[in-house]
Amino acid sequence: MLESVLTLLTVCFLARMSPGPDMMLLIHHSGSGNSTSGSFFSGSRSAYGCVLGVCTGLAFHVSLSILGLALLLKSNHLLFEVLRYAGAMYLIYIGCRCLMDKSTTVLTDGEVCAPAATFGQGFRDGLFCNLLNPKVTLFILSVFMQLTGPDSGLTEKIVYGSVIVGEALVGWVLFLLFLNTPFMKRIYGCHASVLNKATGTILLLLGGAIFIYG
Predict the structure, then answer these.
(1) To bridge 70 with a disulfide, which of 65, 91, 140, 161 should be the other Cys (CB 3.0-4.6 Å)?
(2) Number of separate helices (H) and strands (E) present in the chain
(3) Phi first, then psi: what are they for 124, rounded to 5°?
(4) What are the tens digits of pLDDT across the range 119-144?
(5) CA-only gyration radius of the chain, Å
């Protein structure tokens, strides 16, 4: 099982680090929220809320695969399409919100002071962005089908599911810590408006591509 876990960690890391909606959301929220300074986990509260939301959505997709309900989603074309369109529209909505955000990030004594996006707002964005993406369920289902067989027990499936969610949680937190380094904070401080527009444009393009091409 150890070899399978290591393979799973590698696959999940590569999939997570490919630029996508979750990463764009975290970049946006890391520069637009209440600051949690004075601790190791310094940075935007809304960004950590976004991480928790993403991982909660991921845990839901994992649960579907463990319970076998992901097969229903895979075989039900109408349900898949409804979720796909809903997810695409949500990405377009967030992209438009980023483009219309005229607030800027400023530096005060080396700290980033950003518009007060809340932990709850970040959690909501991360949750729905991940939850409304049926391709996440299909990705996890394909991983489970490669690692498990008809005789695989529930415990083994739960272990693999925990690895998927745990890797995402640790990986995204480390990504946020990188975004909160002094160098990255200076980038936010000088180019917050540009970053918001770039993030919004990418999310719009991703949502549009999912809406049109699937």
Answers:
(1) 65
(2) 9, 2
(3) -60, -45
(4) 898 999 999 988 888 778 888 888 87
(5) 18
